[in-house]
């Protein structure tokens, strides 16, 4: 058992779900089941695994995040995930939200030398793993320890979170973090489009509108969008809508046809067909199966 897993072992965590902490933007997660490859969407942030592991699939690529590799996710990206946990050895981890404004401020303090390097000018995937080095591991362990005390959480917690973000800026996903904070870079433009889609996914959206928002030609926008997400804009929108609908049905008990309309579908029958094709079962079955958020 890792040091981080030992620190989390005595916490009162909700099984197969996230457990909020007293520190805003920080949550624990615990999974006691092994789940096959399943479509999902992660919130933007850093995901650090203390025990167990997950395998993520984005397009034709795959990546592992485990006790040696944490995950950096900058926008809401639909991808597929395989989870390895059990009652005897549950998947344990911690989620840390990335405050973009704080990230901008931190990079401004550091300076833009790295953000002007060749690596940051390349279009990177918006989600990917990074090696959990000694400095990052130490910071995360101190964060978990301080979360056990109300006073420590209030006084020390925010500064340790900032340290973790700083460590990520020096890790394997540094280039994509710097790109996010580089105004008017292609990556910055695409992430702004993704955030627009996140807000407006239930409305009518066309590719020309998105290209205009990104200040790109339709052909350049299409390529840049796929470079970042591995999906075409319309594929991304469909998968995001289906994941949002799944949440409404599984977590809020919304009727399938109501969820369909809420996420932007005009035809409940088309919604049911695409839902089953994507998840492998119909929305009616989801009421009985439930769903996890991690």
From TrEMBL:
Stretches assigned to coiled coil: none
A single GO molecular function term of this UniProt record: DNA-binding transcription factor activity
Pfam family, one: HTH_18
Source taxon at top rank: Bacteria
Gene3D superfamilies membership: Homeodomain-like
Record's keyword annotation contains Transcription regulation: yes
Domain HTH araC/xylS-type: 191-289
SUPFAM superfamilies referenced in this protein's UniProt entry, alphabetically: Homeodomain-like
Protein's UniProt keywords contain Metal-binding: no
Protein name: AraC family transcriptional regulator
Organism ancestry: Bacteria, Pseudomonadati, Pseudomonadota, Gammaproteobacteria, Alteromonadales
């Amino acid at each position: 058992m890792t040091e981080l897993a030992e620190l989390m072992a005595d916490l009162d965590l909700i099984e197969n779900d996230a457990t909020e902490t007293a520190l805003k933007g920080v949550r624990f997660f615990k999974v006691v089941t092994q789940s096959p490859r399943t479509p999902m969407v992660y919130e933007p942030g850093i995901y650090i695994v203390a025990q167990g592991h997950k395998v993520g699939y984005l397009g034709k690529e795959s990546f592992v995040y485990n006790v040696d590799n944490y995950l950096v996710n900058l926008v809401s990206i639909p991808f597929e995930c395989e989870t390895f946990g059990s009652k005897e050895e549950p998947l344990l981890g911690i989620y840390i939200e990335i405050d973009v404004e704080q990230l901008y401020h931190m990079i401004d303090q550091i300076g833009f030398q790295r953000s002007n390097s060749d690596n940051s000018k390349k279009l990177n995937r918006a989600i990917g793993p990074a090696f959990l080095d000694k400095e990052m591991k130490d910071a995360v362990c101190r964060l978990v320890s301080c979360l056990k005390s109300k006073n420590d959480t209030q006084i020390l917690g925010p500064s340790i979170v900032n340290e973790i973000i700083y460590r990520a800026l020096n890790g394997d996903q540094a280039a994509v973090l710097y790109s996010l904070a580089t105004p008017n870079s292609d990556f910055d433009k695409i992430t702004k489009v993704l955030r627009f889609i996140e807000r407006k996914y239930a409305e009518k959206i066309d590719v020309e509108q998105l290209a205009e928002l990104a200040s790109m030609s339709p052909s350049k926008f299409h390529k840049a969008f796929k470079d970042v997400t591995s999906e075409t804009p319309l594929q991304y929108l469909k998968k995001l809508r289906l994941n949002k609908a799944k949440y409404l049905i599984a977590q809020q008990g919304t009727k399938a046809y109501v969820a369909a309309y809420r996420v932007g579908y005009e035809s409940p029958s088309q919604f049911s067909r695409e839902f089953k094709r994507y998840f492998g079962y119909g929305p009616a079955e989801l009421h009985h199966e439930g769903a996890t958020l991690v």
